[in-house]
Amino acid sequence: MMKRARRSYRFRDGKRLILGERTLVMGILNVTPDSFSDGGQWDTPEKALLHARQMVEDGADIIDVGAESSRPGFVPISAAEEIKRLRPFLETLLPNLPVPVSVDTFKAETAAMAAELGVHLLNDIWGLQYAEEPGRMAETAARYDLPVVVMHNQAGTDYGKDLVEAMKDFFKESRRIAQAAGLPEEKLLLDPGIGFGKTAEQNLIVQRRLAELSEWDGKHWPILLGASRKSFIGAALGLPVEERMEATGAACVLGIAAGVGVVRVHDVKPIARMCRMADAILDSGCESQLGFLHPCCDCMISSEPQSSIACESLVQS
Questions:
Q1: Which candidate, 130, 128, 149, places its Cα nearest to that of 140?
Q2: Which of 219, 137, 154 is nearest to 193 (CA)?
Q3: How many CB atoms lie within 10 A of CB 163?
Q4: For 170-208, how does the pLDDT look when each residue is reduced to its tens digit (9 = 90+)?
Q5: What is the structure's pLDDT at 195?
Q6: Crossing angle, helix 268-283 and helix 245-257, to 10 degrees?
Q7: Which residues does the annotation mark as catalytic?
Q8: What is the DSSP string of 117-150?
Q9: Is the CA virtual torsion 211, 217, 221, 223 positive or negative?
Q10: Which of these, 220, 130, 225, 226, lies nearest to 177 by C-alpha position?
C-alpha cells in the first residue's frame, strides 16, 4: 500500500478531521434540481438533513453539499442563485450533524457565505483556478483558514504531454496560487478530477496511475477520489447510472491501495464497508496497535485513538 499523507484539522466548533489514519468517506448531498445522479431527491432542508444523518449512520465521515450541478454540459448559475439555494440547507445541516460539512463550489462569494455559516471544508472543481475569479477562492480559503479540495480540471481533453505529468503541473499551479494567497499547502487535498476534462479512457488511465499523484516533489499528498457513478464506469461496463455502485467500489478499493485517503460517494453504506475491508487487508501485519512503525504513513501509532495528531503539526481551522 502507498504511504498516505497525514493531516489533522481542528475546527472552530470542536469538530476534527484526521486524514491518513484510515480511509475516510465523504457522502454526497446534492441539493440541486438537475444533478446527473440524484438531482431533486433532497430538495428541502428537512429531506436533506434526514439523508445526511442516514449517510453518517452508514459510515460517512464528511458530508459534501452542492447546490449547482457539475454534470457534463452544465450551465453555471450565478453566485447569487447558488447562495439562495444553498443557505437554508447549510443553516439546517451545520448545527445538526456530528461530522464536518464541505461545500462543493468554485465561486468565492458562495464559499465566503458558507464559511461565515461555519462550513468546515471547501470543495473546488476548478482547483483554485476558476478563470472568472483568479485567486479569489484561495484568498477566501486563507481568510477563513479552511482546507480546500483542489480538483484537477480543464476545458477539453487534449493534454499535449503525458496526462499525469500535466495533472501535476496543474496541481503545482494550484499550490502556487494558494501560497500567494497565504494558504499553506497543508490545507490542500488533491482530487484527480475523474470525469472532468478527460475521456473515458483517460479516466481509466488516471485511476491506474493514482499512486503517481499521491507522491511527487518529494512529498506525500492527501488524495480525494470522486469516481462515484461516473460515466467512465458506464462506458466500460455499459451500465446505467443507478447500477454503478459495485464498479464505484472497485475504483475506490484500487484507489485506496494507491494511496487515496478520502472517497467521495453516493452509496455510503456499501462503499464504507469496502473501504474498511480494504484498510484491514492493507494494514494487516503492521502491528500498529503495539506502537510500531506504520508502513503506510511513517509515523508511530499506538492504541490511543487520537495518537495520530502527533504525526504532523496540527492544522487549525
A1: 128
A2: 154
A3: 16
A4: 999 999 999 999 999 999 999 999 999 999 999 999 999
A5: 95
A6: 30
A7: 230, 264
A8: HT--EEEETTTT--TTSTTHHHHHHHHHT--EEE
A9: negative
A10: 130
Grid coordinates representing 36? 446527473
Angstrom distance (rounded) from CA 132 to CA 196? 18
Listed in sequence order, the residues at least 6 apart from 256 whose beta carbon sits closer than 8 Å to its beta carbon are 1, 23, 263, 275, 278, 279, 282
- Rounded Cα distance between 86 and 113, Å, is 9
pTM above 0.85, yes or no: yes
Q: What are phi and psi of 104, to 5 degrees?
A: -90, 100
- Distance set, CA 58 to CA 240, 249, 265 (Å): 24, 15, 12
Strands 24-30 and 188-191: unpaired
Residue 101 CA to residue 22 CA, distance in Å, equals 19
Domains of the chain, first to last:
20-287 (3.20.20.20)
Question: DSSP H helical segments within the chain, as ranges?
Answer: 45-58, 79-93, 108-117, 136-144, 163-181, 200-208, 210-214, 231-237, 245-257, 268-283
